[in-house]
Design brief:
The protein is mainly α and 317 residues long. It contains 14 helices and four strands. Helix content is 83%, strand content 3%.
Length: 317
């Protein structure tokens, strides 16, 4: 009965979340157009950061409760989902995605580097507070570089004091609050279900929680595909990977160090992250576009990842 109740709550929260993302996209696009910012940049600065807020919430709350391994699993699982499952959805539902923009800006390479950074820092089996600080500094530095290269950034500074878009800003903040509340409901329900099933916290983070907190990105890319906004899709994917790898894990480790231990959890995750990143980078560079074949390959990698993690979970319990 409790499992059924939590499952229904997940469905309700998911429907609220999708509507919230629709409002969020509309209002953020209006703000971007008014300030004359490119669609890619607004996706990176606003949408990518905002859609990563569920991961930030999980990171802070789990670390405060001294269960930061959940944050690690959530961030890593979300990154793998982003560059396999989520990037493939708009391709399979619509048309090919041209990746020229993230190659020319070198964001594809930066995202790959930052995604590997937590793995390099945790090679000793831990992400310490010092490691967390390094990740946060890396995020701030990269965010600053994106802002600096953004066309019209000076216009932002000049107009924020004089513009009067109270209604749009209000709707933007309202949609953001709905996004956070619904994502939080999904995560709490998923954790409750997994606890009853007797699954490990790290596995929960990699799978159920990662998918739950990735629902804003899923809703965003599907909605953007319907509106033919490919640059926004790429901006959200790249920006979310960077935010998860640096800001999310940095906050978690700074509040409470992450200890991976000596099990297969960390190594299998890093292996699939490596495979996913290399495939994504190869497909992005080879034809400067992602087609349906590449989408099917990436989704297959994600399915294999879930099955492998589930198999490892059953072997340890």
């Amino acid at each position: 009965m409790i499992v059924a109740k939590n499952s229904l709550l997940i469905i309700v929260c998911a429907l609220i979340l999708i509507k919230a993302v629709d409002i969020f996209i509309e209002t953020s696009t209006k703000i971007a157009q008014y300030l004359k910012i490119s669609g890619y940049t607004i996706s990176f600065l606003l949408v990518a950061i905002a859609t990563s807020l569920p991961e930030v919430v999980v990171a802070i709350t789990s670390s405060v409760e001294k269960k930061s391994i959940l944050a690690y699993g959530d961030a890593m699982g979300s990154n793998i989902a982003l560059i396999t499952l989520i990037i493939s959805l708009p391709i399979l539902l619509g048309k090919d995605i041209v990746t020229r923009s993230i190659l020319h800006s070198r964001d594809a390479y930066y995202a790959t580097f930052f995604a590997f950074l937590p793995a390099l820092l945790s090679i000793d089996g831990n992400l310490s507070r010092v490691d967390g600080t390094i990740l946060i500094i890396a995020y701030v530095a990269y965010l600053n570089s994106v802002i600096r290269r953004s066309k019209g950034i000076e216009r932002i500074m000049q107009q924020f004091e004089s513009i009067n878009i109270v209604k749009t800003t209000g709707l933007f903040l309202f949609s953001l609050s709905l996004l956070l509340a619904s994502s939080r409901g999904i995560v709490l329900s998923a954790i409750s279900i997994s606890a009853q099933m007797g699954w490990a916290l790290g596995f929960v983070g990699l799978t159920i929680t990662a998918l739950g907190t990735s629902l804003p990105e899923i809703a965003f890319v599907i909605s953007s595909e319907a509106k033919d906004n490919q640059r926004e899709i790429l901006g959200d994917i790249v920006g979310s990977v960077v935010a998860n790898s640096t800001l999310v894990l940095g906050l978690a480790a700074t509040i409470y160090p992450i200890r991976l231990g000596s099990g297969s959890f960390g190594s299998s995750t890093i292996l699939f992250l490596t495979i996913s990143l290399l495939l994504f980078l190869k497909f992005t560079i080879s034809k400067q576009r992602l087609e349906k074949f590449e989408g099917l390959v990436l989704i297959s990698v994600y399915i294999l990842f879930i099955l492998t993690e589930y198999f490892l979970q059953t072997q340890t319990h």
